[in-house]
Every structure is written in C-alpha cells, then in structure tokens.
Amino acid sequence: MMLEIAANSVASALAAQAGGAGRVELCTALELGGLTPSYAQIALTRERVRIPIYVLIRPRTGDFVYSDNECETMQRDIEACVSLGCEGVVLGALDEGGGVDADRCRALIAASSGLGVTFHRAFDMSRDPETALEDIIALGCERVLTSGARADAFAGAGLIKKLVAQAAGRIVVMPGAGVNAGNIAALRALTGASEFHASAKRELPSRRRGGNNLPGMTAGEVASDAEQVRALVRALSEPNG
How do residues 179-196 score in pLDDT, each as one tens digit? Predict the structure, then answer.
C-alpha cells in the first residue's frame, strides 16, 4: 500500500514525510485544485525532503485544454523538475472534445526525460473514462489519479473498481479527493486499489494579531498535518482493510 500526500508547501511536505507517507505531490493553491509551485519551493522541498517528490504541472485553473504558450510553460516547468532532481511530475491535457490530448501529453512526457509520470484529475473531466484510461496507458504514464469522475473518491468507488480491473496491472489507478482516515480502509476494500492520494490538511489560524482586515485576506494557511498522515497510514496498513 502506498499513500501519497498532496503537499502545498515545504512544511506540508515535511509533515507528510514525518507522518509516514510514501510520496509527495508538491503543488500550491490546493483550494483551486492545485497549481504548479514556484521554482524555489520545488528546490527547497527537494533539498529537505527524502521521500519521492512528484510536482504538479498545471499552469492555471480551468478546463485542461491548453494553448501553445501554456504548453511551453508546462514544458519549462517540467525541465526545472528534471534539473532539480525530482522523481516525477503530475500532468494532463484534454482536447476540445473532452478526450486525452495525446499530442500535447507526449510533448510534456518527452520533456520529463524519464521521470515518473502521473496523469492527474483531468482524467475525471474526460468524456469517456474507459477510453481515456487506454489512451493514458498508451502514453506510458505509470499512474492515473482519479475520483471516479465524481466529487470525491468514495462516491466514485464503483467506477474506480472498474478502472482497476480494466488496468489489469498496466497502470496504477490511484483514488484521490476526499480521502481521509475514516474512509481509506473502505476505499481500499471497495476498489482494490493499492495507492491512495490525500491532502491530510488542516486550517491553521492566522499568526497576525494586528492591522487591517479585508475580505479574503484574513485567514491563516492550510497545511498537511503529520498526525492526520499517521492516521491515514495506520488505517491503510490494517489487515482486511
């Protein structure tokens, strides 16, 4: 069993490691579904974290249909990940019809120079999950992150189980979205999956005690919590989970 934590900072990545996670998906802006972190954040995380780091390659929010300029941005971000010694990248692109954009994805994978590749939840926005899975396998991706095309993985467990069976060991199907210590064992039993993705996040109060208050600019940060990671690891490792 493998637990991957979506870490939105160096501190979150360190918490994931301290809690016993096997891998980090490094990103920023979790509240927007995740975006590519800065070069400095990637570099500092790589320096301080020992477990494998996969960096989310997503230049903006929205529909996963990308322009030439956006694809060049993603390629350069991937090249930075290669140069910094990351273990993998998390990427994905769709065409206007809702299918996997194989041409765009092949160019991004080529830029990764042999790093591991996870296809992210653009998969859940595709028009035909079964076809999309075969396209992603053909691209050579090692795993696909999915909520089963639902708002959360528990609601999508039925489709995830079908995708695990369809994959038949050719690719890892990794449930993610809404995964927590209270449902991860049930998800394991329902889907037959062997890798799981969670953020284990909690809201931290603002450290600011004075100054002006403006809408949307008063809250503290959201970060992964080592205790929540430990609880996920324990639940996932239970026999007959």
Answer: 999 999 999 999 999 999
